[in-house]
Amino acid sequence: MPTPMRDIARILREHDDIAILSHENPDGDAVGSAAALGHILSRLGKRFTMANASPLPGQFSWMDIPGHWTTALPTAYGFAVALDCGDAARLGPLEHAVDPARLIVIDHHLGNPGFGALNWVDTTSSSTGEMVAALADELGVPLTGGLGQCLYVAMVTDTGDFTFGSTRPETLELAARILRAGLDVGETNARLKNQWSLSRIRLWSEVMGGMTQHFDGRVGAIAISQETLIRTGTSVEDCDGLVNWALRVRGVQAAVAVRELPGGQVKFSLRSVGNVDVQRVAASFGGGGHKNASGGSLDGPLDAAQATLVAAVGASLGAPIAHV
Ligand code: 5GP
Ligand code: MN
């Protein structure tokens, strides 16, 4: 058992009014791990608030989310716990509101500087949800009901449905425990996945149709402009997961997705397979993440940002490998 986890369990047992924070534009691991911690605290009879710079994305509105989800830090809190945040900037505007002396960090990103007073960073964990499950075990809370559901959503999201290399035996064992504790896996996955709008389908068709290939087909690139988002009536949530599909093209070892932000800045997502390390590339632009999935932002315009990233990703590729 890692010591920071025991210390965190002790603090949660001994204190009340916990602020649960997660990264802005939260994905399933951020929402799932934050809500899972809320369930744990609720079962321990504690008061808590879930605060995130972004409102709860509509795609997660069906989830069993305990308590309230607010976009501002509560005025009074005992400790704050930042979940799934690779660095303090991932908290968005909440970064400057939170007191670092009362901040606990629970995360699994490479290169996390440990920006809290107490930091539990496990880069071998496939999701932050997996770490929160260990905390539930330590605190004697069973993985039933909403807790199991939220943990499962966190795991499914960050492991790409248990397909990424980060999926370890412990991940599948935890999923099995959650199923044994009563999770309806078919219904949960249906509610998580079958939520597309026709607008989203149109966005994806257009963006995927515009995919380009570079470096002898080893790098795939897609771009999402503000104009496309406005014309298709879609939002940032609808772009979630798009980048992964560039990896489906035979021979592609790394995928680059760029998305234009309203102010002209560009948000990027990188994905790779095997030993191609896109975390280093993202870090060289001030971003971060994992070896096979990373992100960050840089200046526009969109096409110049894409060219810069494609060149950087291409330069990080090793010698070509034979394809079967
Ligand atoms: P996504 O491409 O899905 O937005 O993010 C992929 C991974 O990169 C996630 O692990 C996420 O936490 C990380 N990531 C995405 N954007 C940023 C960023 O701006 N800064 C840092 N440090 N990490 C990011
Ligand atoms: Mn995560």
Automatic annotation (TrEMBL):
Pfam families in alphabetical order: DHH, DHHA1
Signal peptide: none
GO molecular function annotations of the record: nucleic acid binding
Gene3D superfamilies, alphabetized: 3.10.310.30, inorganic pyrophosphatase (n-terminal core)
Every DHHA1 domain range: 232-303
Annotated InterPro entries: DDH_dom (IPR001667), DHH_sf (IPR038763), DHHA1_dom (IPR003156), Oligoribo/pAp-PDE_c-di-AMP_PDE (IPR051319)
Domain DDH: 18-154
PANTHER family attached to this UniProt entry: BIFUNCTIONAL OLIGORIBONUCLEASE AND PAP PHOSPHATASE NRNA
The protein, known as: Bifunctional oligoribonuclease/PAP phosphatase NrnA
Organism, as annotated: Desulfolutivibrio sulfodismutans
